[in-house]
Structures are given as C-alpha cells and as structure tokens.
C-alpha cells in the first residue's frame, strides 16, 4: 500500500531515501567514545582474529560487490590476504582453508542457498565463519560462528540498495577492527577513517539532495541500447554494481569494467553516442589512479562516447571531458563507494521507471533465492 511505501511510489525509492539512517544505524554503538571500534558481538576472540592468515569473502549478486570492496579494505588495513568469490562457485573448486581462515559470508536475507552451502563447506574445513547479515535469526547467521548485523531495516524491493550500503559499512568495520586488534602500521589512518565513517550518513544525505539532474539524465537515456560503467580500485565494484542495477531494473545491456582493462578489449565497444559512466577515484588519495582514469575518459570521449562522470567535489581535471558531471563529497579513498553508489541506484531506478518497468518486482528475479 501507499502507506507502507511511506509516500513513495516504490519501495525502492523509499529504501534509497532511507540510506542515511541505515548507515547511521549500522554504525550505532560500534564506535566507542575513545574513537576505537567495539565489536563485542563478534564472539570470535581477538586472539583468534590475530592468528587469521587468510580471509575469504563469499556472497551473491549485490552482496558480492560489497565483498569485492571488502577485499580492498581488508588487504589494505590488515595486510591479510583476502579472496572474494561468488558463493555459487566457491565449494566446487575445492578451495584451500583451515582453522586460520576467516570466511565472511555476506547476505541481506540470510537465506541465499548458494551462500549457505559455501559457508557450510567452509565450516567443514575448519574455517571460522563470520556472517554479515540484515535479517535477525535467519539461517546464515544461525549457522555461522559469529554475526555482524547490518541495521538497514526490512528491504522489500528486489534490487538491493540500503542493504548494500550497510554491507559496505559492516565490511569496513570488520576490516578496521581486524586492523585495530592486529596493530598494523596503518594505526593512525585506521583511527582517522573510523572518525570519517561517522560522517557517512550526512554525506549520503548530501548526495541524495542533488539527484534531480541524475533523474533527468536517466529519463533521457531510456532508449539507449546499452550503458557501460568504468571504475578502478574500489570504483571497479561500484561500476559492476551500477551495471547490475541497470540489468535488473531496466533490462538493458549494461556492463562494468575495470578502467585499465578498457584498452584490452572493451574500448572496441565505444561508438558515437554510447553512454559511459565513469566512477573517478579521488585526486587526493592515489593520484596516479585518478590521472589514469582521466586519460581513459579522454580516450573514450575522443571515440564518441557520451561521458557521465562521477567525481569528487573540487576535482576540476575531469570537467573538460564530462558531458554530464555528477558530484560526490570527498571521502577517504576506500570509503568512496558509500557515496558513489547512490547516483547509480537513482539512475537505474529512474531509467527503469521511464521505460515503464515495475522497479520493485523486476521480471524473473526473486528477493531471496533459496535454491542452488
Ligand atoms: C538475489 C537478489 C539480489 C541479491 C542476491 C543476494 O539474487 O535478487 O538483489 O543481491 O539475491 O541476496 P542476499 O540476500 O544473499 O544478500
């Protein structure tokens, strides 16, 4: 009913709008007054976490994209090697694990069969399993050694939005906490990122307040035959997520690529008028990545692409090459997906609506897939 949708036409719109609160609720009570993380709920003793020598993330769909971002965060802040794999592939290749492996299973519903079977396999091998889950008491957390709940509240729309942002928060918390208990050389950076995470709800709110031009752009692209998405570093999974949203909701051909791979194949797809969304890393962090992606934008634009550029406020280098510029607030490099994903959700939702599709219940998809 309209009341359940809180005045919005679709649950998806409501859930996109709820993201600042979902992020804030997922952070709540987890950052101590001393600026350190307290994740007592993890139930895996710090001593065990100190001995972990490998992390494996398993998940499906949108949660898998959160897992890809987790890998960047975990390897950077903890120096523990981290793999990420779609849950449906994981157990069939005889993966290598032991009691020093930490497996992180990410699932909004907690009922996805592929993810459940992956975690069962991991536990049989002696690995410790930590679930990141949005549904209290669901099967995946019940069968895991520990759980870190996301507090997105119930997500009704099939395409995941607020759950994804809270999965990112949970992944950052786990990565930062592992860094904190293990005491890496990134101690100062970890403290400052923990502080900046507290600012994420306000930044997401800020992005949501600037989405009207993105909606207009989406409507203007309703007849586009395809849309490509490029990103690098944590922007790569964001590009994949942007493309997935467009497939799920608008039934369009949409593909995400690592921008550096462009020259190894996908650049052949570029032709006059093709919309290409580019997620640009901060020019402050690893500026080499920023500069390389600016070159990519030039290259595709010279070949006729219509460039839709998502870039940090104050990044002037992209301005000459952006047919459409979407600004996001400055964040630490690894946290950028919290803000860069939001315009892509809005874009897909609006484009699908313009095409007349039912965004809450896309064809052929289920919110929770309980078969392998
Ligand atoms: C289904 C949904 C996706 C979701 C995936 C994983 O395929 O349509 O939106 O990302 O399952 O769901 P989970 O509940 O495990 O996060």
TrEMBL record:
GO molecular function: carbohydrate derivative binding; glutamine-fructose-6-phosphate transaminase (isomerizing) activity
EC number: 2.6.1.16
Listed GO biological process terms: fructose 6-phosphate metabolic process; protein N-linked glycosylation; UDP-N-acetylglucosamine metabolic process
Keywords for the protein's UniProt record, in alphabetical order: Aminotransferase, Cytoplasm, Glutamine amidotransferase, Repeat, Transferase
Enzyme class, first EC level, given as a word: transferase
GO CC annotation, single: cytosol
Gene3D superfamilies named in the record: Glucose-6-phosphate isomerase like protein, domain 1
CDD domains the record matches: SIS_GlmS_GlmD_1 (cd05008), SIS_GlmS_GlmD_2 (cd05009)
SIS domain: residues covered: 44-184, 217-362
Catalytic activity: D-fructose 6-phosphate + L-glutamine = D-glucosamine 6-phosphate + L-glutamate
Official protein name in the record: Glutamine--fructose-6-phosphate aminotransferase [isomerizing]
